[in-house]
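Q: Give me a backbone?
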Amino acid sequence: MNNKRALQRRRRGVQEMIKRRKPKETNTHHRLPRSKGGGNNVNNLVEVPITLHRAWHSLFQNYSPEEIAEIVNLTWIPTDCHMVVRRKSNEDVTASDLPITPRD
């Protein structure tokens, strides 16, 4: 339960950061890339600041979460740490519960 609350706090922090930046331009990001079977349904789309969207694809292209975790583990975080991807269960908080879309 504490992990779920911590995750919610972090997501709210990201939401606040995006609100403060008030990006003039946003892009629509596909959570699951169309090239990997993702569609244009509302649950697969999120509006993100254009600079963050470019940075994401510059770093991670259309890699899967597992591939991204491997890149992060090999390149970006201390060797005594290990990033893990865990698929959500039905009881986990979903993205639609805590949207991180910019607000005007």
Remarks:
- Confidence is low (pLDDT under 50) at residues 96-104.
